């Protein structure tokens, strides 16, 4: 029998992704959403949002209280909180009788050993997902859905993680620039969460793969040229293997936080581009876009929108 997942607790409804999850859940009359936010959080939420405050130290007993009576829990946590509290939140969802947990995954592929070897963030996410999977069957009615969405398109455009700089009109094209990879917009991730909760049977106890479109460095460059109205860009060519080595070195040895963040973003991109690592979910036959009836987006239109042109 299909469970009716109506009451949803969203932990981490602010930050980069959280507001889009909240917007989509609030826009769908099927759901009644409660945001769980830290006492010290300065995040603001839309008027009439139901908010429960928890201590900054994220105590399990508080979450047990908050999760009781909730049908679903969605986690979208910042990195240190994820490392420290994710397993406890999984346990609390099981013990409180929640029916569906959407864990704080929101990443690229985690199922390929080489991806986990190359990219420490993927290894860390895979560890979180292992624990979630381990809980399957531990309480009647509890289930999970993990979301793999590739790079956040909005973030990549806004922070130059694609190595395309619309101010200096300069770009790096990796290898021949033709490798396709899946990316997803924040809006589509939000919509996907509502569709997952509306299709609990089809999405139970597995990873769903979503994307707004499959693109390549060459396509992205054409989109940026069109969006900026500048046809001539300064293009540097890079080798994916070499780029991976350099990014790994920065992550392990740099003392500069911003350099490390940029290297993590680059590694996320390169792991999606590297041949054989399955960055194109549609070509790999993994895509759940049709099941979840997700819209397809146009790369140029989205780049223009995100660059405000
Ligand atoms: N695929 C990609 O390209 C990509 C890119 C970025 C992020 N992600 C993933 O998306 C998810 C959300 O990331 P995000 O960047 O949106 O997260 P974020 O902005 O860093 O934080 C999300 C929320 O975590 C809550 N939080 C709990 N403890 C916290 C603490 N000690 N310090 C700060 N915030 C704390 C906050 O909610 P309150 O303030 O309401 O308590 C915050 O708004 C993560 O799983 C991340 O790995 C994926």
TrEMBL record:
Statement: the UniProt record of this protein carries the keyword ATP-binding: no
| Residue ranges annotated for the NmrA-like domain, each copy included | 7-264
Instruction: Enumerate the Gene3D superfamilies for this protein.
Output: NAD(P)-binding Rossmann-like Domain, UDP-galactose 4-epimerase, domain 1
CDD domains referenced in this protein's UniProt entry, alphabetically: PCBER_SDR_a
Q: InterPro entries per the record? A: NAD(P)-bd_dom_sf, NmrA-like, NmrA/Isoflavone_reductase-like, PCBER-like
What protein am I looking at?
NAD(P)-binding protein
The GO terms describing molecular function are: oxidoreductase activity
Tell me the superkingdom of the source. Answer: Eukaryota
Q: Which UniProt keywords apply?
A: NADP, Oxidoreductase
Q: Does the keyword NADP apply?
A: yes
Q: Which SUPFAM superfamilies match?
A: NAD(P)-binding Rossmann-fold domains (SSF51735)
Q: What is the lineage of its organism?
A: Eukaryota, Fungi, Dikarya, Ascomycota, Pezizomycotina
């Amino acid at each position: 029998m299909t469970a009716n997942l109506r009451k949803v607790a969203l932990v981490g409804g602010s930050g980069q992704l959280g507001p889009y999850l909240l917007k989509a859940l609030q826009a769908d009359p099927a759901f009644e959403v409660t945001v769980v936010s830290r006492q010290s959080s300065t995040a603001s939420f839309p008027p009439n949002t139901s908010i429960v405050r928890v201590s900054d130290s994220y105590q399990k007993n508080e979450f047990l209280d908050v999760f009781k009576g909730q049908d679903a829990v969605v986690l979208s946590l910042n990195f240190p909180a994820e490392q420290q509290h994710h397993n406890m939140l999984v346990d609390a969802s099981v013990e409180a009788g929640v029916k569906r947990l959407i864990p704080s995954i929101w990443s690229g592929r985690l199922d390929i050993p080489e991806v986990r070897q190359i990219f420490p963030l993927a290894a860390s996410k895979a560890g979180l997902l292992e624990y979630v999977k381990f809980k399957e069957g531990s309480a009647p009615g509890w289930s999970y859905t993990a979301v793999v969405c590739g790079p956040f398109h909005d973030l990549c455009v806004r922070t130059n993680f694609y190595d395309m700089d619309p101010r200096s009109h300069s770009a790096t094209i990796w290898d021949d620039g033709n490798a396709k990879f899946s990316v997803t917009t924040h809006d589509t991730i939000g919509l996907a969460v509502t569709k997952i909760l509306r299709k609990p049977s089809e999405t139970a106890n597995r990873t769903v793969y979503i994307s707004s479109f499959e693109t390549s460095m060459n396509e992205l460059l054409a989109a940026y040229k069109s969006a900026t109205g500048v046809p001539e860009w300064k293009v540097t060519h890079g080798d994916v293997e070499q780029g991976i080595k350099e990014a790994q070195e920065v992550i392990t040895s740099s003392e500069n936080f911003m350099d490390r963040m940029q290297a993590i973003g680059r590694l996320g991109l390169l792991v999606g581009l590297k041949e054989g690592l399955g960055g194109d979910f549609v070509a790999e036959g993994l895509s759940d876009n049709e099941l979840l009836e997700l819209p397809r987006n146009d790369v140029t239109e989205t780049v223009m929108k995100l660059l405000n042109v």
